[in-house]
Amino acid sequence: MQFTSIAFFLFFIAVFGLYWLVCKKNLKLQNILLLVSSYIFYGFWDWRFMALLAGSSAVTYYLGLKIGESQGRAKKIYINSGLILAIGTLFYFKYFGFFVESFAELFSIQNKLTLHIILPLGISFYTFRMVSYFLDIKNNKLKPEKDALALFNYIAFFPSMTSGPIDKGGLLLPQLKKERVFTAEAGADAARQILYGAFKKLVVANSITPITQNIFQNYEHLSGSTVALGAVLFLFELYADFSGYSDMAVGFARLLGFKITKNFAFPLFAQNIAEYWRKWHISLTSWLTEYVFTPLVIQFRDHGKRGLIAAIILNFVLIGAWHGPRFTFVLFGLLHGLYYIPLIVKDKLNKKKKIAGNFPTIKEVGNMVLTMLMVCFALVLFAAPDLKSALGMYGRIFSFSLFTIPQFIKIKILGLIGIVILIDWINKDQEHGLDIKRFRPLLRRAFYVFLIFIIMYYGVFSNGSYIYEQF
């Protein structure tokens, strides 16, 4: 059930009405409705995996209680059991087939073990919630949750089930146990965020998708300039698709009275690769920073800058591997880790430069363009189905045909990308891209009508898929 589908629209209207009209004065009823809605949402994709979600949640709840009751070695056993359960489940469904197939290919063994392993929807997102729950208990940042309804809702929360953000228990669990209040102002702002997310997904991302697919599938017959154009367009496709879906997730959560993690902070205007990752997929990078990077830095602290470089590279290799069992994803992460080395050597890793004023300087524009080119170069690995294809694409890009006029340039696409850049730039210091409540009412309403018109006229509704649902 995609956020942009009619089925979800009707589903959410029903949930919203029951949630605030029928269950408004009863927190438990609201949470029951929320949990039932989350399982209906999940079961709409494949009802068979509802048992996996429920079973994982039940074991997580049980182990949490046992952790709270235990001390010393027994407590560690329960915590480690929870981590092994969560990570082991993710490994089986997402990576086991890859390793078995690789082993079979290496030793020329006919392989039939992985034919029926289907990747459950959103498993990477809800598994990371479970892992953070156990790690936060281990690190004394969170107490084991005794409210089963709250914990089940935390793991299965449907607005962020398939797209993230990856919320931690310390943020979402307290909100599940206190009264939620709906205000017209918050509802209007949430609707604005959903509208902008729908525009980015339906109009921008879905319009670019056929072009990038055509380029990447036929790169061998295209010029280097066209393949390079495909990498640039893919950046905007991925940004519009992922940030658009994340905007809608945050907006739908707010309509239900929840404030979840902000996942994007205008990364197109980042002036170096470190700033880019502070603004892109924020919930994943902050999750890995807390649970992977920081422990690695502590472990390698005696090795100075070399230890910091090693920690960053390992962290980004894991970011790449999180996306799936492909060598290209691992290399994608490795390349981003290597991008950090000049910043570390020059002691510029944590330096933040806020763009002041309405217009960037020439230096700021240069920094932004360079950063985006670095990202686009790495995205070839992200888009390629295998290493051979990635090398083939790089080979085309670094050929003499790079200096020819590219194909597939469409004024409509450039105009849509320009609208996204302009809206983001105007609101780069705001909470989200359509946070325009500071403008006059007449101007706001005119802009809403304009976006709705663009969505209805240019929106591509036939492509309901969402890039990150495969992760």
UniProtKB/TrEMBL annotation:
<feature type="transmembrane region" description="Helical">
    <location>
        <begin position="77"/>
        <end position="93"/>
    </location>
</feature>
<keyword id="KW-0812">Transmembrane</keyword>
<keyword id="KW-1133">Transmembrane helix</keyword>
<dbReference type="InterPro" id="IPR028362">
    <property type="entry name" value="AlgI"/>
</dbReference>
<dbReference type="InterPro" id="IPR024194">
    <property type="entry name" value="Ac/AlaTfrase_AlgI/DltB"/>
</dbReference>
<protein>
    <recommendedName>
        <fullName>D-alanyl-lipoteichoic acid acyltransferase DltB, MBOAT superfamily</fullName>
    </recommendedName>
</protein>
<keyword id="KW-0472">Membrane</keyword>
<feature type="transmembrane region" description="Helical">
    <location>
        <begin position="6"/>
        <end position="22"/>
    </location>
</feature>
<feature type="transmembrane region" description="Helical">
    <location>
        <begin position="365"/>
        <end position="384"/>
    </location>
</feature>
<comment type="similarity">
    <text>Belongs to the membrane-bound acyltransferase family.</text>
</comment>
<dbReference type="InterPro" id="IPR004299">
    <property type="entry name" value="MBOAT_fam"/>
</dbReference>
<dbReference type="Pfam" id="PF03062">
    <property type="entry name" value="MBOAT"/>
</dbReference>
<feature type="transmembrane region" description="Helical">
    <location>
        <begin position="113"/>
        <end position="135"/>
    </location>
</feature>
<dbReference type="InterPro" id="IPR051085">
    <property type="entry name" value="MB_O-acyltransferase"/>
</dbReference>
<feature type="transmembrane region" description="Helical">
    <location>
        <begin position="307"/>
        <end position="323"/>
    </location>
</feature>
<feature type="transmembrane region" description="Helical">
    <location>
        <begin position="51"/>
        <end position="68"/>
    </location>
</feature>
<feature type="transmembrane region" description="Helical">
    <location>
        <begin position="329"/>
        <end position="345"/>
    </location>
</feature>
<feature type="transmembrane region" description="Helical">
    <location>
        <begin position="404"/>
        <end position="426"/>
    </location>
</feature>
<keyword id="KW-1003">Cell membrane</keyword>
<keyword id="KW-0012">Acyltransferase</keyword>
<feature type="transmembrane region" description="Helical">
    <location>
        <begin position="447"/>
        <end position="468"/>
    </location>
</feature>
<keyword id="KW-0808">Transferase</keyword>
